[in-house]
Amino acid sequence: MGYVLGISSGLWRVGREDNIFGIIKKGYYSITYGVRFTQIDIDSITEFKDPFLKQGIEELKRFGIEFGFHGETTATSAVDVIGFDSAIKDVYEITHKRLIEQINAAGELGAKYLLFHASESSPFQMLYREFQPSKLVDFWGRPLRELIESEKFLWKFVFESNVTKKIWEFLRIEPQEVIERRLSVLRQHIRELLQSKITEATQKVLANVEAKIRNGEIKPEERDKAFVEEYNRLKEEIEKEISEYEKSETERLKNEVTKDLLDSIDSYDLNYGPERFAYYVVAKYMNETKDPLWMGIVGRKLSDEEIFTKPEIWVPAVATKYVWGHFNPSPNFEDPKPLLEKYKMYIVWETGLVRQGYEGMARIARPKELYYLAKNLGTKWSAWCLDMEHILATCYIDLKKEIEELPDDAGAWLKVVHVAYPSPLHGHKPIPLGSEAQEYIYEILYILRQKGFKEGWILHERGDKPAFQTMEVLRRIKEFLEKDVPPNELPPEFYGFEIDEPEVIRQEQIVLQHALDPLKGLLAVPEEEHTFLSKIALERGRLEQWKKEEMR
To answer: How many CB atoms lie within 10 A of CB 380?
Structure first.
């Protein structure tokens, strides 16, 4: 299909514009800019219940207009209803339900893609102050305890490793300390029980020996020997009984503590940032199993200490694994992949926009992370979106370097590009024709074309300013991309003017006239400041008028 140009409709709740009131009107937005593709930005999923929607969409299609949907985000709904990377049970379930609803709604209407922000959750580093329920799930949507109980290395990591105390920090307890406290009580009980039984045995042995003396079974002088022999026999039996009792009780206590702790991560008790615990566990799981997402994003195996002390390295891998889980879920959840195949519709992942002050801390933000997510989702209908402005305003990175370092096939999984003035200050501003911004965008897309970005949707995701010149910029970007013109060979036509235009010729003459200016005052021969005509103008006091008319 090559490159398809388009524009986003914008949100009705932002500008209250009548021409984008509802999905149908939003769909027509592109034709006012001379293109036939609209990204319809959803204000609310209630828009899919418009009673006139199907009829309106059929009329829209008769105009030759195609469309994709930008699904719910915090920016559109003003609440965090979508949390693809969340390990909180109820958030996971609500997210999955709304995902299925929006896939079906968009697919039934014939959308080309449905786009979501991959992550809008609170940064992992800030979870220590987030009050959350402790009902945690793994990336498949199962209770997290099932994952822990399924792997011995996870059990050891959670209960017996050098970071066990740290990963349980959200509960303000440490498993071994709890076990030791309970064992100290048990040991005291064992000591008292042993002493009681020894005292009871001593009395019993003494009574038995005296009875045997009275019955003539032993002689009085054999009393001490008989007592010691029977006492030692009973004591050995008692100590063996107590030892077995202590062993079984110790095991019971350990199981009781681990059960209580596992119960604590499957409860609605509120704690500060229990989601960190789930991320530690899943990180260990991905680390040990060499998960493809882990190896792509992290690139190596980490020690337990690194997992705890360097979350910035691995949090994106775990976050993408939770997104992945929604498309490879446990049997308790509907698998979305067959729906994507049914509707021939892409699911597209975009960098979200974190709020100011959290720059560089988004759980998923970098193009590399979106690429590995799209590639490993398990369906050919998965793709990623490049939003340069979101990345510049979120990642706090060198975007061009980031794109250059992407794997060689990263562009093949890129299907949507959101274009606006590439600024680290979010605003979705238009792109002036002939500007440095136009050239910068072209350079980024040219690199991606060399990495496989041969087709997809290039859209101006608009803000509150008219975008007519921006659409002309996109047409020129598309034209020269498809001609494979390197950025350093772009002709003047790319910037919006022809080489033989009067203004170009005028500029060339000015440059030639002043080419020798740096040599003024350095020559030994007399220097001529004016030509024949300009000298006459100078003599007649009309030099300024001459300068204005010289190049006409």
So the answer is: 11
DSSP assignment letter at 526: P
Cα(313)–Cα(321) distance, integer angstroms = 14
Q: Tens-digit pLDDT profile for the chain (552 aa)?
A: 799 999 999 989 887 888 999 999 999 999 989 999 999 999 999 999 999 999 999 999 999 999 999 998 876 666 677 899 999 999 999 999 999 999 999 999 999 999 999 999 999 999 999 999 999 999 999 999 999 999 999 999 999 999 999 999 999 888 878 878 888 888 888 889 888 988 998 898 889 988 888 888 888 888 888 888 888 988 898 889 989 988 999 889 888 989 999 999 999 999 999 999 999 999 999 999 999 999 999 999 999 999 999 999 999 999 999 999 999 999 999 999 999 999 999 999 999 988 788 888 999 999 999 999 999 999 999 999 999 999 988 888 899 999 999 999 999 999 999 999 998 887 889 999 999 999 999 999 999 999 999 999 999 998 777 787 999 999 999 999 999 999 999 999 999 887 666 776 677 777 777 776 776 766 554 555 656 556 677 667 666 776 666 655
**278, 262, 258, 329: which is closest to 132 by C-alpha?**
278
Alpha helices in 397-490 (DSSP H): 399-404, 436-450, 468-482
Could you state, in order of their start, the residue ranges of all structural domains in the chain? 3-129+283-495, 168-264, 502-549
Cα distance between residue 328 and residue 337, in whole Å: 8
One-letter amino acid for residue 474 of the chain: L
- Side-chain half-sphere of 205: how many Cα atoms within 13 Å? 19
Q: Is the domain defined by 3-129+283-495 classed in CATH 3.20.20.150?
A: yes
Is beta strand 266-272 parallel, antiparallel or unpaired with respect to 456-460?
A: unpaired
